[in-house]
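Job type: complex structure
Entries:
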Amino acid sequence: MRRNPRIFIGGALVLFLVFVAIFAPLLAPYDPIAVNGAVSLEPPSWAHLFGTDDVGRDVLSRVMFGSRVSLSVGLIAVGIGMVIGISLGMTAGYIGGAFDLISMRFIDALLAFPALLLAIAITAALGPDLRNAMIAIGVVAIPGFTRLSRGQVLAMKNREYIEAARTIGCSNVRIVGRHIFPNITNPLIVQATLAIAGAMLAEAALSFLGLGAQPPTPTWGADVYYSQRYLSNLKWWGSVGPGIGIFLAVFSFNFFGDALRDALDPRLRRSR
Amino acid sequence: MTQYVLRRLVFMIPVAILVTMIVFALLHLTPGDPVRIIAGEEPDPAAMETVRRELGLDQPLPVQYIAWVSKVVRGDFGRSIRTHQPVLEAIGERVPATMELGLTAILLSVVVALVVGTLSAVRHNSPLDLIATGVTLAGVSLPNFFLGLVLILVFGSWLRIAHPGGYVPFGEDPGDNLGRLILPAITLATASIAVNMRQIRSSLLDVFGQDYMRTARAKGLSETRVIARHALKNGLIPAVTVIGLQVGAVIEGAFITETVFLWPGVGKLAIDSINGRDYPVVQAIVLLSALSFMASTLIVDLLYAWLDPRISYRSAS
């Protein structure tokens, strides 16, 4: 760990994001949805570090509150994808046979859709709101976890220590839960971290398209969209603030996930 | 090889059937009566009944599915609710603009990734490599709608050296067409440049550790020749897969990029149709995108098998 400063930098970035999200009500200088006609479209200043939007809402406060939506979608959607994906993948890998064949064809079918397109289509079908965006992004996250955990189980299930566990009479549930799962957590942690980055990016795209949390909830994607009409007048701050929010949040998780992968994946440890 | 191709095609059939089921299910996931949504806010009962019968919604679901699939197979996706134009025709009109944007983005992505990825691997751990690796991570973290808006802001509104959006057919004014293509193509290419570059860099680094590289150097070949003839040729084989998968990224990226740049392609049509609740069009685009993504994945796999003589297409599936 000490040899890998990137994990600390990545971890610090992620913690900072979580900190802002949790303490947004204390940190934000203004009420994110309070309209104030007196300060409409003010450029960044000491009073409003990121400026104000056309109805005088403080952009910095909205960016801070926006982290809550982004992070909760990231965590919950990936949670959904992980629970379903891992249970399906481990079961399929362990019992094999027809169950494996059918569930993997289903996963192949999900993978046949470009991911963001599937998320857009599901959200559009269920109706545009935050909960449905979480479900849609969660569904899209399933195949990654299924394939990864299935592959890991296949690699593990014929090892000697599993054979030994079976010999002493462990049940299948116990073998999978207590012997196989703990040995495949490293790649799953890496996958989860990178999947959170992907989920936050997808949430931003959905809310940019008006398919995520509905106004006046501050969300980064919707705020970028809302203020984009002022870009041609060079009043850029309304869109650039939340855009930077998305970028930093996704970058933090990508950076952390990348560092974790290099540290946890023994295949990459070799020479470089 | 023929046998391998056939086997792959046969394996695709169940997946394709599941894909059609998912697309069919999407419309029926819609909470409430789809007819109400299709017929508008204040439907009159007679109109609703017509729509219901037209869509066959009075039939049981499996019957509806079979009816829908048998139409789709014949290329009949119904008519657009907004324009009453046949859906396939409406999509067909938009394909050239999307192809132009998508192919330019893929070309841009491959060329830039190849050059920077190779330099980065050759000068491993040099400042260039570190900067390129950092920029790559930034590239995959940047939402393309935001990148697009920033490009419009800087080059369109501020410096005024590029068009902020819109489209002119190539046939009408080639210069204007290409001028308007630059910003959306860069926007669409950025994320896949990042992914491709990473892949090219890491497969080249793998190859650099191989014995035949040392042999090639030992027999006195120039460094350029070693890299071009020995490293690139072998290192690019795994990269083909990743580059191929970027076709999917370009398809989904096109939805947003086209919307941001008012580029009248299939992606913009899809988003407009979602906002206009034009379900037949949405359904058709989702299905066709999935099928073209499947086809491109298949082509990539075949290309991979053909390029890498170590892969046997007789036994493994």
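Summary: Residues 59-95 of chain A form the longest helix (37 residues). Chain A has twelve helices and no strands.
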